[in-house]
Amino acid sequence: MDSLGSIVPNVQITAQNKIGKRFEAVTNEEGNYNLTLPEGIYTIQIIHSPFKTFIIKEYQVTHSVKKMELDVSLICEKCELIEHPSALSQN
């Protein structure tokens, strides 16, 4: 989701382990994704323009945990506010 709490679809999620193997997923319309990762330590990147890339280092995955959730808020790096005439109040 973005910093305003809106769901962001089509976000690229990449997990790379210590030996360089990459696992990738893309969020769906509800902002959800699924990655099946072997046990290990990963660097996770969350990428979607114009938002700033979110990086998590040393993220540990263990076999004892069957499902893990990762919720993040993306920060807009190059966004601009566009006003639509229909959204403006008329007096």
Secondary structure layout:
Blueprint: E1 12-17, E2 22-26, E3 40-47, E4 54-61
Antiparallel strand pairs: 1-2, 1-3, 3-4
Characterise this structure.
The protein is 0% helix and 30% strand. The protein has 91 residues and is mostly beta strands. The chain has a single domain (12-87), classed as Immunoglobulin-like, CATH 2.60.40. It has a four-stranded antiparallel beta sheet, with no helix packed on it.
Structural key phrases:
mainly beta; 91 residues; single chain; four-stranded antiparallel β-sheet; Immunoglobulin-like
In sequence order, what are the helices and strands, one letter per element? EEEE
- According to CATH, the fold-level topology is Immunoglobulin-like
Q: What is the SS-derived class? A: mainly beta
The profile of the biggest β sheet is: 4 strands, antiparallel
Number of domains: 1
Please report the total strand number as a whole number.
4
Overview in brief:
The protein is built from no helices and four strands. It is mostly beta strands and 91 residues long.
